[in-house]
Amino acid sequence: MILRNPQFLLLLMLVPLIIGGWLWRRGRLPAAALVLRVIIVILIVGALTNPIALQGHIDSAGAPLVVVLVDQSDSLTDEGKAALRARAAALAANSSSPVQIITFGATAAAEQSTPPGDQTDIAAALRAARGLIGDGGGRVALLSDGLQTRGDALAEARALAGAGIPVDTEYYQAPARPEFWIATIETPPTLREGEEFTARIVMASTVAANAQLELTVGNERVLAQQVRLAPGENSVPYTGRAGRPGILRMQATLTGQPDTLTRNNVAGATVLVAPMPRILLVEGPNDVNSAPLRSALREAGVMADVAEAASLPAQISALGLYEGIVLIDVPAGVLSLDQMATLREFVRSEGRGLLAIGGRSSFTLGAYKDTPLEETLPVTMVPPPRPERSDTTLLLIIDQSASMGPETGLSKFTMAKEAAIMATESLRAEDRIGVLAFDVSTRWVVDFQPVGTGLSLADIQRRISTLPLGGGTDIYNALQTGLPELARQPGRVRHAVLLTDGRSFTDDRQAYQALIEEARSRNITLSTIAIGTDADIDLLQTLARWGAGRYYFAAEPGDIPRLTLLESEIVRTEPQVEGDFRAEQKAPHPMLRDFAPAQIPGLKGYVATTLKPGADLVLQSPDGDPVLAVWQYGLGRAAAWTPGAEAPWAADWSNWPEYGRFWAQLIRYTLPEPDSGPLQVRVVRDGDSVRIVADSVAPGGRPLDLADTQATIVLPNGAAQLITLRQTAPGRYEQALILPDDGPYAIEVRQQKGSEVRAAQAGYVQRYSDEYLPPADPQTGARLMNDISAITGGNALGGGSLIAPGGGAIRAERLPDTGFWPWLLGLAALLWPLEIAIRRGWVRLRR
């Protein structure tokens, strides 16, 4: 028996709904009426499937049945279908054995029926033949082009061989025909509102042809142009901008001649468009100006708020508005441990994005080493080893004014001297050190000398430890004394660290700037450590910025040694690399989609770091150091850009026309995927049908059960349908359905439980079947047909007659097929009045 319309079996899902409704109404309907109603539904569904019993008879000689399988799939074209039907009729007419003809495409059907031709399921046809022949013995003849698109014909052939049923095959080779088609539309899977994107329409052709290409986005035709198709693959790009949030549907159509099949001339694509993201730009203290970046991001579709690093919230709940955070030259010293831990959990636990942009106060230069920031980022704060490293000269300028006392106990002055002693221990023997103390005057505690020669390390440390307290504070006088002397020292790396807790007698900013600029011209850098809240923080920040160094704030005396030691280690390892260079792309990466390395402007410096295992190196310096790196950290992504966004290392970047798009693309890559969230929707292909599956979780990760869940489906033609999803597992809701047309579908699932309402969207493209594509290998069909006959012990007919199961030519008449649908429908019609009579109480059944 064969079902002509098996898809109607899906209607049997009405049976549990009927029973459920009866139970919900607490059995108001008599049980006998319920039973009759269920039987009537089953009979009607059975009639809709159109079951047919295929007939054949054994002649007087007892000849077994021969089943002829005739391919009627669309890949044959009308001419091929007619040729195979004629061939089957000729074989049957010349056969002396009972012959049953079955046509097949997506399903198997009786000879008089026309099966759906959008698939070739040879396995289903062989399975139907095996069921007809049964244990009585018989033979199968298969007429096809062998281009199966569904099922496993070889597995079914092995089953026939096991049953002792040979399969004779006759391969039909379709004549060469001109064909062109749309293979796909390549698009990003997700976009953000206002984001610019590039789609690529990929076409293929077997011949040279002229065609008209049209592209529709939403309901608007955005592209209409003539294309010249060459044999092989062809493509046309389209650049657009994402509109309102939702599912963006795209459909391309190709028309022209010469062409054979038209169903493959249409293809679709869907893109989930999420709302415009909101991020937080966190500025470092050294006069970082994020205004150009913020403005460029807004034009590129990224909304950005700005906050100073010191005001960054220390609670994740306060950052709930933002999908990502960008640190712009932020030193770790201005963030508390709680703030850094919050940034770490913002990425790791909340699945948000973090981008750290470099500068002279970030990464290794910003004391990220051994902090939650280093743990979060894809690079470590250890510069790669260099073949040769310049000797370092370090000048420590220590405030010995009375305010640093008292001398006894854990005072600021005691900690400053301890810090100087630790700095001497961190330097190599060939490095040079000088220690200058100041109040209103200056005093060289240690003249410049190599650490390993001159005074011993113990002598240097003794001189530092016995340094007494003084009087007032004159920072300018100390710099005026120390920096020129530092300029006279040999070596390329010369660095000064100023430690002070007070306000200077001199506050002439122009004089300070002239002094430090002169030092910078001699390649000298200056960092400052402000000790306590009474220090002139504004002045010290400015001095560090002018001196191309770092500014630290030591809130407690115990912080001083750590910060000073950190400065000495930074200077000793030389993490700052300066000089003109152009970043090199290590490997293609989505962060640089549509950006060629030659498009990216040159840079003037970066902070040297080392890539962590498991991180992606996107851009590197000529020395192989990370310039742009990214990795997955917990649930989120973190990225590191080791140059800056503006001067001094990216001074010309804000004039680059692609400045905003570049940064927006980097930031978007770190943000959570737009389709993430507590309600996840996907569409699963399942044979001829699809299943819409929605997974829902409550706060805390528990499955959300017993929620009203509905899906609105927008068809390719713009019409909308509403369906209900039923719960099938904890937190899972789904519904199977058959989509009527090829093309892009937009699906929105809305779910309500109590007062809580949530929604999620998904796109789905029902693509035309492979039936409408030329085979990649022209011999694929012939090989399959030969393999089937070889496995089963059959023969290649090659235009000959059918072979009898017993070995000779056979002949018999065919019997007509029997259809059962009228009987099933008639029985349902007879039971209906009885059901009505029982339901209304006209007939009562006794127990």
From TrEMBL:
Alphabetic keyword roster: Membrane, Transmembrane, Transmembrane helix
Gene3D superfamilies found in the cross-reference section: 3.40.50.880, von Willebrand factor, type A domain (3.40.50.410)
Residue stretches spanning the membrane: 6-24, 31-49, 820-838
InterPro entries documented for this protein: Class_I_gatase-like (IPR029062), GATase1-like (IPR010768), VWF_A (IPR002035), vWFA_dom_sf (IPR036465)
SUPFAM superfamilies: Class I glutamine amidotransferase-like, vWA-like
Domain of life according to the entry: Bacteria
Domain VWFA: 393-570
UniProt KW Transmembrane keyword: yes
UniProt key word Transcription regulation: no
Record Pfam families: GATase1_like, VWA_3
PROSITE patterns: VWFA (PS50234)
PANTHER family tied to this protein: BLL2462 PROTEIN, VON WILLEBRAND FACTOR TYPE A
Protein name in the entry: von Willebrand factor type A
Biological classification of the source: Bacteria, Bacillati, Chloroflexota, Chloroflexia, Chloroflexales
